[in-house]
Protein 1
Amino acid sequence: MSETETQKVIIIGSGPAGHTAAVYAARAELSPLLFEGFMAGGVAAGGQLTTTTEVENFPGLPEPIGGPDLMIKMREQSVRYGTTIKTETVARVDLSTRPFTVTADSGEYKTETVIIATGATAKRLGIKGEEEYWQKGISACAVCDGGLPVFRDKPLVVIGGGDTACEEASYLSKFGSSVSMLVRRNVLRASQAMQNRVQKNEKIHILWETEALEAVGEQFLTGIRVIDKKAKEERIIEASGLFYAVGHKPNTDFLADQLDADKEGYLITEPNSTKTAIPGVFACGDVRDKVYRQAVTAAGMGCMAALEAERFLADQE
Ligand SMILES: Cc1cc2nc3c(=O)[nH]c(=O)nc-3n(C[C@H](O)[C@H](O)[C@H](O)COP(=O)(O)OP(=O)(O)OC[C@H]3O[C@@H](n4cnc5c(N)ncnc54)[C@H](O)[C@@H]3O)c2cc1C
């Protein structure tokens, strides 16, 4: 492959969305070039699943699979059908004229279509003990991890006061013995309906004006040192699970505002489609999805993006 040759499809990102797009584009004989990133957005090539131990909800895998193992298999499948992969982070793109220009360490690449699958990074709080207990009790995804045996019938804590935090607390109340929500202010930011749902749930307790200071434990998390800001008192609350619901940052800095995004930075596409406002540019997976944020939904959107890119190219001929 030469840098000067115009590609049919360049895929940026290497999570489930990027690799599914790659498999579909490769099988459609579009010879995709995929930039998998090098610690882009703070995540290894392979995306967010490389940061988790067990995935139990990806279809077709009756036994739990390690997140990194699942991503190695997806990568192998992409390569098997003819995807070229570069372990580089895309620094910038120029979407003002087609063919588009994609710039990475090894140079500039021209392409007829671009599929953006760069995912999102869960925001962290940086509290003491966070590194040590990340994935040993601390998680950024209640739907992914909440049902794991280590959290069943155990006291759980959610940090956040928005819709996601309320939704995650409700979900976790099915598994935990109790769920404490740490809310920084004395009000929830969530919609009234979500607030009602949380307040009616007997397992959920809201700790107002309370912030986490430290995650404590032994091999695994056992508690959180918190501060009650009103009483100015510190104490340790028991917790086997700590779930962050403080938002995600979509990985879009390299786009330099060339594509429409919502106020949280998620890319905007046409409804039920991965088409952005620029013909030939598609966005799929967590970089455009703040609702479902699952491997299987990201993969589904990756499939849509490749099919839409293929149809776009066919229409150009
Ligand atoms: C701890 C944890 C556990 C989870 N567990 C589950 C689970 O059990 N089941 C489930 O379905 N979902 C789970 N999820 C959610 C799931 O991981 C995501 O929904 C899914 O990975 C999103 O896929 P994606 O392809 O959109 O993006 P990502 O997985 O975020 O991958 C995007 C990739 O693009 C790369 N990238 C970013 N910018 C650039 C650039 N400029 N150039 C090149 N590459 C770039 C990133 O480095 C990353 O590797 C979990 C998430 C977390 C954080």
Protein 2
Amino acid sequence: MEFAEVVRRRRMVRAYDPSRPVRREVVDELLEHATHAPSAGFSQGWRFLVLESEPQRDAFWSATDPGGVPDPWLAGMRTAPVLIVVFSDKQTYVERYAEPDKGWTDRDESRWPVPYWHIDTGMAALLILLGAVDRGLAACFFGIPAAQWAALRKAFAVPERLTPIGAISLGYRAQDRRSPSLRRGRRPLSDVVAYGSF
Ligand SMILES: Cc1cc2nc3c(=O)[nH]c(=O)nc-3n(C[C@H](O)[C@H](O)[C@H](O)COP(=O)(O)O)c2cc1C
């Protein structure tokens, strides 16, 4: 598929065909793409937790869903045969930038007014989303409420230094409801771009 087509066809998809698994080699191909994302100082402070089996996915949804009311969003998302939980690792950056070529030996976090670890990990996640489209798959990046992080950490022995920036559901598309957010429409370039000066 042409790159421009991949970009334009990408949509967050929130319901999947449960009868169509995704082969490990395809998942690994998407993860390979992710490792080609740019990263500050080539720190590569990202980590990915892949959940493919039903018990693993159930454990994820149990840990991250506060429970209570039946939720159509969750019902759709639970049909995804693969979940990739995406983590950023701040410590990797702090250590990388203390190396001689960077020289930030004070390891002072205020040197990062914008947290590169989250930026880079987000870029890596985008490559997974685009790679999925290129492979005829569908995906959705979604956030994990901070209140559920402790349960997530416990369920999957997540190292304390990792921050779950979100998760990606992956599979073959089923009929899904169009997100109401899309009614907002895409902002035109004239709204979001300034040439020369704001
Ligand atoms: C950082 C981030 C967090 C998001 N969190 C959620 C989420 O928790 N649940 C969800 O259904 N979609 C989530 N989305 C998807 C957005 O709703 C979606 O990208 C947006 O509505 C535009 O739709 P499109 O990606 O299909 O073009 C998230 C997207 C991003 C980039």
Protein 3
Amino acid sequence: MSSSNRTNIPNSLNEHWMPFTDNKNFKKNPRLITDAKGVYLTNHQGKKMIDASSGLFCNPLGHGRKEITEAVSKQLEKLDYCQPFNQGYGGSFELATRIAKKTPEGINRIFYTICGSTAVETAIKIAIAYHRAKGDSKRFRFVGRERGYHGMNIGATTVGGMINNVKTFASVLMPGVQHMRHTHLPEHKFVKGQPDTGVEMAEDLERIAMNFGGENIAACIVEPIAGSTGTLVPPKGYLKRIREICDKHGILLIFDEVITGWGRTGSAFASQEFGVTPDMITMAKATTNGVIPMGVVAVKEEMYDAVLDSSKNPEGTPELFHGYTYSGIPAAVAAGLAVQDIFDKEDIFNRAKEMSPYFQEGLHSLKDLKEVVSIRGYGMMGGVEMRMKDKPGKSGFQTFKHCYDAGVNFKNTGDTLIIAPQFICEKKHIDEIIEKLRTGISNYSKS
Ligand SMILES: Cc1ncc(COP(=O)(O)O)c(C=O)c1O
């Protein structure tokens, strides 16, 4: 079939090896999405569903935004590609300036990557490069956290802490990585927002520094709110304490804001929401509203200066031997700029902040269902943990399938449903999400 007469139903599902998918079962009973508009998706059977996870957190502005489509298509007609090494074009600089206006003060040097994984990989390399630039080449260790997710390159996989993602690849992981415990305690089961207990979990970083020598640790990376494991909100004071321990030992702090960045918490970044400033912030997902891959590392100015100042290379030689063919390509930048315009015009972070209490109330209204064993959330993100008759690990996907049939789409991880509505949602959309979740869960329970 040529691209001009493509239909929504492919002739064969065999050749495409799908990512993070149960390929065998999916291909027997596929779920194909054909159209998306606003907060709704349509599948290949013509069924309309509400998108309750903003397409993997990517599209908070809703699907099919004309402003973005038009900006990308205009850009492609004018300049479709230009090499990003020792050459450039105006748009990528303009977008960097716009991003730097929204990041915390001083974190204003912008390195483009292709996605969240490459942003994390880049941050890991920048941490090493910075320490070397300062004459400190013995720092090679990194600290991550259990239940953390940072993407799927080797570095990002290693600092992550979701066991299924690492066990097959144990033989090739990065050396010198330690993990702190995750922050979820039994008493956090139905806590709204930040739990009051658990700040002492931050002392894990101090213990690792004691055991391995703080002077050997390059950086500590955490998601301010652990997203992919099902929304683990940090205990009050936890992130601040992590910052203090990093400062004590000269360890860089990386906030992976691939999910929390661009308004998910109600502030531009979780860093601002929780009042803790890291040294680097990684972001991706909502940067282009999901339409063209793009990741970003925002770096402290002083770190950028150190790397540049330490380079004694001849003209034309990079200060940092790192980059991607698709770093800041014009189409992604055009989408990113259009997204920034919408953020500003529609005051989108405040909109998310204003809708958050309503969404969190709705989510917690599911507490009366006996199958729901934990609900946690912050801003426009939440996790609903299920326990059904099935073995642990099975309920999440089974619930997802029943909810899909009930007309609400989201992602599950293990037994947890990941719910992250779009910021353009109105109250009636939140109501619809909650009502359909309730129907899907009840249908599964009865099945
Ligand atoms: C916090 C975090 N970091 C990194 C990544 C990896 O992003 P990508 O899938 O774009 O490589 C993700 C993806 O879900 C994420 O949630």
Protein 4
Amino acid sequence: MNLRIGFGIDFHQLVTDREFWLGGVRIPHSKGALGHSDADVLLHAICDAMLGAACLGDIGIHFPNTDNSYKNIDSKILLQKTVDLISKAGYSIVNIDTTLCLEEPKIKSYINKMQDAIAGIAALPQNAVSIKATTTELMGFVGRKEGLVAYATVLLETI
Ligand SMILES: [Zn+2]
């Protein structure tokens, strides 16, 4: 079995007057992430981890934020396109492990929905999509609620 691991990280600012999308799910919150797309930090980190595992560059190469066709795009579409790229390159996904780093909102009750959204696109069982969350104990930009971070690792195997 030929296995390949990939890592991804993404950051977005949190601002008022934006919908808050995380893991493909809309979460009610007073702020949302700022970005060219819907700024779903978790899906972007997963895309980068998949592309990294296949050595296919990064999300900015495939879906540039200078391209107006990606303006406010649902990042689930970007994840689907990334899964398609991975598949075309001859890989299937084994599992995804992620950690979110944010102070608020509390996302525990949304994790199941996020797992389902991601697993559906990646054609995986729910227990192959791990989503963990932590805070930074009020330190730094995450602690000041100015932004959030997502980290992802993805394991691929050759088809
Ligand atoms: Zn992003």
